[in-house]
Specification:
The complex is a heterotrimer. Chain A contains five helices and 14 strands. The two termini of chain A are 27 Å apart. Helices cover 25% and strands 30% of the residues of chain A. In chain A, the strands form four sheets. In chain A, strands 1, 2, 3, 4, 5 and 6 form a six-stranded mixed sheet that branches. Chain A has one domain: Ribosomal Protein S5, domain 2 (2-Layer Sandwich). Chain B has three domains: 52 residues, RNA polymerase II/Efflux pump adaptor protein, barrel-sandwich hybrid domain (OB fold (Dihydrolipoamide Acetyltransferase, E2P)), CATH 2.40.50.100; 94 residues, OB fold (Dihydrolipoamide Acetyltransferase, E2P) (Beta Barrel), CATH 2.40.50; 131 residues, no CATH class. The longest helix of chain B has 20 residues. Chain C is 36% helix and 23% strand. Chain C contains six helices and ten strands, in the order H-H-E-E-E-E-E-H-E-H-E-E-H-E-E-H. In chain C, a hairpin with a 7-residue loop joins strand 1 and strand 2. The longest helix of chain C is centred in the C-terminal third of the chain and has 64 residues. Classes of the chains: A alpha+beta, B alpha+beta, C alpha+beta. Chains in contact: A-B, A-C. Strand 1 of chain A pairs parallel with strand 1 of chain B, so a sheet runs across the interface. Chain A: It is found in: Cytoplasm; Nucleus, Nucleolus. Chain A: Belongs to the RNase PH family. Chain A: Keywords: Cytoplasm, Exosome.
Chain lengths: 309, 299, 311
């Protein structure tokens, strides 16, 4: 937020607070503010989620389409990320104002989901070399109150968890072309395996230490932030087949820096380790919330709470 | 070392509404007829049409003799002479500072309306004009009093008292100005060792209590003092008060020293300050505070 | 995206003919086999931990005479040109900005890549590289010295054979220094590719391609890391990672990168110092020539004076 101005004494107060591991609202350096999550909020999307983190509000919709796979990856589907910074969030986003921010976020997401260890694109394959699913993940930023990357990655993972892809009933080969027959029943569908999908953690360097989930004031005190993408753990999302798999260590799928400053190599290492801790607790909390919501809606048609208080 | 993350579901969303003891006032919406034209005068938030007085904003009616105003629920701060405000210096101009004060137009602090170091009222020389940035620079927070209101509604401030002026270390919370109760005193030293300035403009400043040793110190000493780290216990109390105010605001409760202190006392049952960020805890505190206020009112 | 009608655009779904060659159809394992021979040497004869800059660092400045500063860096088949232009007022901006700004643009030549023809309009990768380049350069430049000004940095990648971002950052750092833009430190960058246990320092395009591809076996580390550093200040100005690897791997690799970045510094310094020496020599020569001319002129004058006096 460029419009924010802070006095030197306020900055000193925040700086000492971070040094003391006790921030101005009582959080420690690795605590997140409470979040609110709802999946399946958009009726015309295959999967959707809305996440609210303090003032940041993210809505994600997943649309599925059929496409031809890339020639060098015949057995993989496609993922496409689009970020839209709505001018509703701040007037600065009007016109092309939010474009740069939107590009950098979608770039980050694309990189984070690149590896097959983060998200296995093979589950989007329909017919090798001929047809595959293409997921359009549209991210809408409705309100922006800092820490966008983290919120976006959480919302995307929740939306993918919620995404249903129809079963293919039959495929007819017709002279090289393929005719697919899909069922009309929306419940005749499969869910995606997104347990290992990555989460982004932004670490804001203030003084010598880094904090996660910075408030707008804290972001103002920092000249550089580090964004780390870390894979999730399947056991939080699919506890039923947990005994089959051993717990895997989370892996870095992307690292990037943002801001005009620079960091010492040691701080960088510490920040990455701090990011792993934060990502793990994020992942666990997200898994719990998603499973709980699924549990609540078994058998009954989901009641959508949407945007009304 | 594990981070604290809580993700709630929308189905667990709490309604932050706290029923207050008093009856709800009549609420007007834009275009609604308030009364006939004959007996009343047209005030802010109303307009006349077809011999009727109609509301132009959504809000509650205020009647002073024959003057009818509709006060909107969410509005920017409308200043009155004598109000205490907290504001932020935006710009240093010729012989004055521009101060952001949550009102429609930026306020003005004249160079002649501040106490310059040296104490008594002395003539402002050209040298003082050049030193303005040393006194207050862009981004600095000040507490001030509204000296006069210009015809266009912008405010002229003054800090000609020791209690006003540049603010030391602390945090600022912005709330709706309509939630701040008008009181005689807006500077409070709470019994928990924290001082709070509840600005009429909805800016609330929380800082550790000042120690008296530095009233007559020289400038360098004060500056040094300003940069000292705040102690951990003060910091915890400040964070608790900040979260309590946020809880009260979420439930749209009026803010003054009593309600803040009540909320603070009620919040002590939550051991960790960060637990107060949870919406349920916030509602709990707001509810208990309202309960105590109701009890006092009954007595 | 708006189509450029003045240029010939190939059909949308055309593919490179190389797709149908044997080389293309090789499996992951075959490609992996190819990268290293039995003596654990790479295709171009380097060892795994040997950067291209080690055996032959080729760089020069003042390639583009009209720019304030320019640099050209060649790492075998990766060739990069960079030019830096004079500071100018930031266009379309009405607010005063205390710090000067850097405008960076990275562009691939249409014929620079092995696998595809680069489109004329900037694509997502180029935009991402531009952002990364700016991120890497910004901390090194004393931006407070030219408030409200913008310095343009243009990088053109003529040939891309891996590590193009690192090459671009090195070239841009050299060009900035050549343009005498005030800087805190020389900025250098290095990249490496990780495939399983093997770490390829300064990878070629083929190595990068394989590192980005996801291996079939679960849990193997793979990916590319690019890091840029200000070696004297021991500060990392940009760190880019893609792929999937555990933290131990990242931290281990960081040390290698740090060392590599430091080894490039003397090379850059050498180019800069040579420049100064050359400049100095040139000036000396010019001065000597000027003196010679003056002496000749004086002699002529004397001659004419004599003639005049005699006449």
């Amino acid at each position: 937020m460029a419009g924010l101005l802070l006095s030197p004494t306020e900055k000193v107060f925040i700086l000492h607070g971070v040094q003391d591991d006790y921030r101005s609202d009582g959080r420690s350096n690795i605590d997140y503010r409470p979040m609110e999550l709802e999946t399946d909020v958009v009726s015309h999307a295959s999967g959707s989620a809305r996440l609210r983190l303090a003032n940041t509000d993210i809505l994600v919709g997943v649309k599925t389409e059929i496409d031809v796979p890339k020639p060098d990856k015949p057995d993989c589907g496609k993922l496409e990320f689009f970020v839209d910074c709505s001018a509703n969030a701040t007037p600065e986003f009007e016109g092309r104002g939010g474009e740069q921010l939107a590009n950098s976020i979608s770039n980050m997401m694309q990189k984070a989901y690149h590896s097959s260890q983060a998200f296995n694109l093979k589950q989007l394959c329909i017919f090798e070399g001929k047809q595959c699913w293409k997921l359009y993940i549209d991210i809408l930023i409705l309100e922006c109150g800092g820490n966008l990357c983290d919120a976006v990655s959480l919302a995307v993972k929740a939306a993918l968890f919620n995404t249903r892809i129809p079963f293919v009933k039959a495929a007819l080969m017709d002279g090289g072309n393929i005719d697919l027959q899909l069922s009309d029943d929306p419940y005749d569908s499969k869910l995606l395996d997104v347990g290992s999908a990555p989460l982004l953690v932004t670490l804001c360097k203030i003084g010598d230490k880094c904090v996660v989930d910075p408030s707008a004031e804290e972001e103002n005190c920092s000249v550089i932030s580090l964004i780390v993408g870390l894979t999730g753990d399947r056991k939080y999302y699919y506890p039923k087949d947990a005994d089959k798999q051993q717990s895997v260590e989370s892996k870095c799928t992307t690292i990037g820096m943002n801001g005009p400053g620079s960091v010492a190599p040691k701080t960088l290492k510490d920040a990455i380790n701090q990011g792993i801790v934060a990502a793990k607790s994020l992942d666990e909390a997200l898994g719990q919330a998603l499973l709980k919501e699924r549990q609540q809606n078994i058998g009954i048609k989901k009641h959508s709470y949407g945007f009304l208080k | 070392m594990t981070g604290h993350v809580s993700i709630r579901l929308a189905s667990e969303r709490v309604n932050a509404c706290v029923a207050s003891g008093s009856e709800l006032p009549r609420f007007y919406t834009p275009g609604e007829v308030i009364s006939g034209m004959q007996d009343f005068m047209r005030g802010h938030g109303t307009y006349a049409e077809d011999d009727c007085l109609k509301a132009s904003v959504a809000g509650v009616m205020q009647k002073v003799n024959k003057l009818i105003c509709i006060r909107p629920l969410k509005s920017r701060y409308v200043g009155e002479i004598g109000d205490v405000i907290v504001g932020r210096v935006l710009e240093v101009q010729q012989r004055r500072w521009k101060v952001e004060s949550n009102s429609r137009l930026d306020s003005v602090l004249q160079l002649s309306a501040v106490n310059l170091p040296g104490g008594e009222l002395r003539r402002r020389s050209a040298e003082d004009e050049q030193m303005m940035r040393k006194h207050l620079q862009e981004g600095d927070l000040i507490s001030a009093e509204v000296q006069s209101v210009f015809s266009d509604g912008s405010l002229s401030l003054h800090t000609r008292s020791l209690k006003y002026g540049k603010l030391p270390q602390g945090t600022l919370i912005k709330v709706f100005p309509s939630l701040v109760k008008r009181r005689k005193n807006h500077f409070h030293n709470l019994p928990c060792g924290i001082s709070v300035i509840i600005g009429n403009n909805g800016y609330i400043w929380i800082s550790p209590q000042k120690h008296d040793l530095m009233v007559e110190g020289n400038v360098d000493e004060i500056q040094n003092y300003d940069m000292q780290p705040v102690t951990r216990s003060d910091r915890e109390t400040m964070a608790r008060i900040k979260n309590c105010i946020a809880a009260l605001v979420a439930s749209k409760m009026m803010l003054d020293d009593t309600s803040i202190m009540f909320a603070y006392e009620e919040s002590l049952k939550y051991e960790l300050v960060k637990d107060l960020l949870d919406p349920e805890a916030m509602l709990d505190i707001a509810f208990l505070t309202q309960h105590r206020i109701n009890n006092i009112m009954e007595e | 995206m708006p189509l450029d009608y003045r240029r010939f655009n190939g059909p949308d779904d055309s593919v490179s003919y190389k797709r149908f060659t044997d080389n293309y159809l090789k499996s992951y394992d075959e490609l992996y086999e190819e990268l290293i021979d039995k003596n654990s040497r790479r295709k171009d004869g380097r060892k795994l931990d040997e950067a291209r800059s080690m055996c032959m660092f080729f760089a020069r400045t003042d390639l583009i005479s009209q720019a304030k500063g320019s640099a050209y860096i060649e790492l075998k088949k990766t060739k990069v040109v960079c030019s830096v232009f004079d500071p100018r007022e930031i266009p379309h901006q009405n607010e005063f900005s205390q710090l000067g700004q850097l405008y960076c643009e990275v562009k691939f030549a249409p014929f620079s890549c092995v696998r595809q023809r680069r489109p004329h309009a900037p694509d997502a990768e180029e935009r991402a590289l531009s952002v990364a380049l700016r991120q890497a350069l910004e901390p090194a430049v004393c931006r407070h010295l030219f408030p409200n000004y913008q310095v343009d940095v243009f990088v053109y990648i003529l040939e891309h054979d891996g590590a193009c971002l690192a090459a671009a950052i090195n070239a841009a750092g050299l060009a900035l220094a050549n343009a005498s833009v005030p800087m805190y430190d020389i900025i250098t960058a290095c990249s490496l590719a990780i495939i399983g246990e093997k770490v390829f320092v300064d990878p070629t395009e083929a190595e990068e391609h394989l590192a980005i591809m996801s291996p079939d076996t679960e849990g193997t580390n793979h990916g590319i890391i690019t890091m840029s550093m200000m070696s004297e200040l021991k500060q990392v100005s940009d760190f880019m990672q893609i792929g999937s690897m555990d933290v131990q791997c990242v931290t281990k690799v960081m040390e290698i990168l740090e060392k590599e970045c430091e080894t490039i510094v003397p090379n850059i310094q050498k180019v800069l110092v040579l420049n100064v020496v050359q400049c100095f020599n040139q000036r000396k020569q010019l001065e000597a020539e000027a003196k010679e001319r003056e002496a000749a002129l004086n002699a002529k004058m004397e001659e004419w004076k004599k003639i005049l006096n005699a006449g």
